[in-house]
């Protein structure tokens, strides 16, 4: 059976440039739509976090004013049905990436607090990339790529990718006090950054690396991941 490892941030706060904190976590849509699609495709999906900490779902991602009451209800039901998995994730430090066919990283602002600098995240990504295993990340999930480093530097330099854009961060209202901006940081590390219209679905594939721009891109990214694994 095809095995997928979904790495979730363990952060529930984002430390801002002025030292204040912003409540955050995992963006529900990005976890749920990907997880649901992969499981429905017949894949085995394991969850892991730094320290094996139960991840926090960003409250904004379940706000009925943002996603509507019907979607919010469906998401809450899915989270409740998968509470045992979410409350008992694997410990990221214990993960052997050779046991998985793909590494998937949802966003929310959590990854820009912890995954971007997590040494085990970096270790897993380097080994997975060296073995040409599928790596997929959406929205702020590509921040995890920044944790990777090998003897030649950043292994994703020169690769085509996307993420939550600086323009979207500005429109969302979180750019002004951000300690750093994700798209800008990826460019500075050497990524060939691509983007579509703000808030539209946009997916980039470069070999074994698949990335989605924002929450709206999750469904299309999931389809691309499933297609690539099949």
UniProtKB/TrEMBL annotation:
InterPro entries from the UniProt entry: Class_I_gatase-like, DJ-1/PfpI, Prot/Nucl_acid_deglycase
Domain DJ-1/PfpI: 84-226
Alphabetical keyword list: Glutamine amidotransferase, Lyase, Stress response
Similarity comment text for this entry: Belongs to the peptidase C56 family. HSP31-like subfamily.
PANTHER family associated with the record: GLUTATHIONE-INDEPENDENT GLYOXALASE HSP31-RELATED, PROTEIN/NUCLEIC ACID DEGLYCASE DJ-1-RELATED
Name listed for the protein in its UniProt record: Type 1 glutamine amidotransferase domain-containing protein
Species this chain originates from: Plastoroseomonas hellenica
